[in-house]
Amino acid sequence: MTGATPQDMARALTHVLGTQWGRDVAISALRRLTGGTSHDSWAFDADDGAVVHPLILRREFAGAALDVSLAAECDLLHALHAQGLPVPRTIAQGAAGSPVGTAYAICERLSGGDLRKRLAGPEPDRPALGLALVAAQARLHDCEVARLPARFLSEHGYRSPAQQVDTWSAIALDGIGAGDALLVAAIDRLRRACPAPGEPRLVHGDFKTNNVVCDDDGRLAVIDWELAHLGDPLEDLAWTMLWTTPFDLVGGIYPADAYLAAYEAVAGRSVDRGRLAFWNLFALVKLAAIFVRSASLAGEGGAARLRPTHAMLLRAMPWIDAQLARQIAALAPVAAEAVR
Amino acid sequence: MISPFETLDAVRAFLADTLLAETPAHLRSELRAAIKLLAETGAQLDALPALLPAESGALLDLIDEAGATQTEDLRCRLAAGPAALTDQLALQDAIGIRVGEVLCALHGRSDPAAADLAARIVATLAGQAQARLGWQSVFATGEEPG
User: Fold this and answer.
1) What does the pLDDT look like over A94-103, one tens digit per residue?
2) Same structural domain for residues A179 and A299?
3) Per its UniProt entry, which superkingdom is the organism in (chain B) (predicted)?
C-alpha cells in the first residue's frame, strides 16, 4: 500500500490501532504531511471512544542503508522516553507486510508544531526556547548509552570520525563527481585532520529547529531520528550550526559563539574548537551527500525519478562549495599540524 | 523566431499563472519548484558561455603554477575557441578534477608556498561558487553556517 489513498490508510489504521488497544477506533483528520524519499508521514486523530489521540504515522517505503530502520528508531525512542528524555512516545509499530503495507511507526503528535514555525510566528520567547533546545541537545548527548536498545546499537553503533568521513564522502563523491575540486579538497582536509575517536555518545544527526516539536505547555520532543548513531556530540553541534536563518537555533536565537557557550554551560564540558572545526567541515560534506542521496533514492513505490524539489537541492552545491572554501581555510592550521 | 529564453519564460508563465491553481495540493510544491528551476536554469544557461572560459583559464594558470603536468590538452581545448556549452562544461569538469588533485598534493606539503598557493586556489574556487549562488534558491545569499 505504498501509494495508499487516505481511505485505504484510514481503514488500515482503524484495524492496527483497534487491535492494539482492543476496542473500536475511529480515525479522522487524516492528512499526508510532506513526504521524504525513504519515509512518509501522516497526521491523524484516533478516537477510542473515551479520548481523541493526536498521532503521527511514519511509513518506510525505500531502503536507505545509512538510515536507522523504523523498527530500530522505535526501539530507540521507547528507550529514550523511558529515560525521561524529550522524544515522542511511541504507540505502535509494525513490519513490512502489515495492514499499513510497509514498515510503520505510530507516535504521539504534539500540538504546537515545530520550533522553526514557532520562531517564525508572532513574538516567540527566543531566550526560553534557546535554553530549552540547548538543554534538550545536551541531555540527549548525556543519555546512558548502555541502556540503549540492542537493535539500534547493532545497526548504528559507534562510528569513529574516520568512518563518518569515509561513509559520507563516498556518497557525496559518487553523486557529485571528482570535478568538484572543493569537495575533493574538503574530503582530503578531513582525512588529514581526523581527530581520534572519543567517548561514544548518542548523536541525533539532524538536530535543528524543524526537527523539534513543542506542545502548548512548552514540552519539547525531538523527532526524525533516521540519522542517529553513536559518535562525537560535536558532530551534532556542527550540524546545528549549519542552519542559520532567523528561524534556527544559531542565527535565530544565538550567535554561534553564544550557542557554544550555552551548550558548554548546560553540558558542563568545554567544546574543543579545533575538533569542532573538523566537524564544521564534515557537516558540509554530509549535507552534500544528503542532497545527492535525496535526489538518487527511488521515490514512493520504487519510481525512480528526479522530482523538481530534489533537483533544487542539487542546485545548492555552489552554496555548499562556497562554505566548503571557508571551512577548508578554517581547518588549515589543524591540518597543517597533522602534516607536521 | 522566439528565443530559447522567451520559450522558457513562456512555459514558466503558463505553469505559474494557469497550471498551478489547477494542481492538486500535494503536487503544488513540486510545481513551484519546477517554476523556480526554469527561471534559475534559464539565467544559468544565459551566463555560462561567457563565464566558463575565464574561470577555466584562471584555474589552469593556478595549477600550472603548482607545477601540474599534462595540462596541455586542457589548454588546447580551451584555446580552440567557442564550443558547445556541453563541451565547455565537460572541460570545466576535467579541469576541476586536476585542480582537486593539485589541492590534495599541496595539502600534503608543509611549506608556506604550498599553503599560500592552496589558499589562492581555494579562494578562486570560492569566487566561482559565489558567482553561481543566484542560480539556486535553497539558501539565501549571505546565509552562512555559524
Assistant:
1) 888 788 888 8
2) yes
3) Bacteria
